[in-house]
Amino acid sequence: MRIFGSKLSFKRSDLLTTKIALFFKKAGYNVTLRLNKKADDDFIFTCQSRFFVPSGGGFSILMKELVLKRGGQVFAVED
User: Fold this and answer.
1) How sure is the predictor about 1, in pLDDT bands with cuts at 50, 70 and 90?
2) Which of 7, 14, 53, 54 has the most Cβ atoms closer than 10 angstroms to its Cβ?
3) Residue 46: strand, helix, or coil
4) Eight-state DSSP code of residue 4
5) Radius of gyration of the chain (CA)
6) Helix crossing, 39-47 with 58-69: angle to 10°?
7) Residue 22 half-sphere exposure, CB side, CA atoms within 13 Å?
């Protein structure tokens, strides 16, 4: 469910999500996209990931830390 933003910004977001997924699929990774699910369920699902690409937002930072604590790998650009 989407609450904020215009339809155009969601199209750009969906396009970027698709491009990122395709990049990792081509690199041989198994990619799971979860779209339009409950945010709390997505948070739990993501924190259990073996691999994670953070977006830079507050929840993403928290998810990154939990993925690392569970022994997962994080793909991120360092500041």
Assistant:
1) very low
2) 54
3) helix
4) S
5) 13
6) 40
7) 6
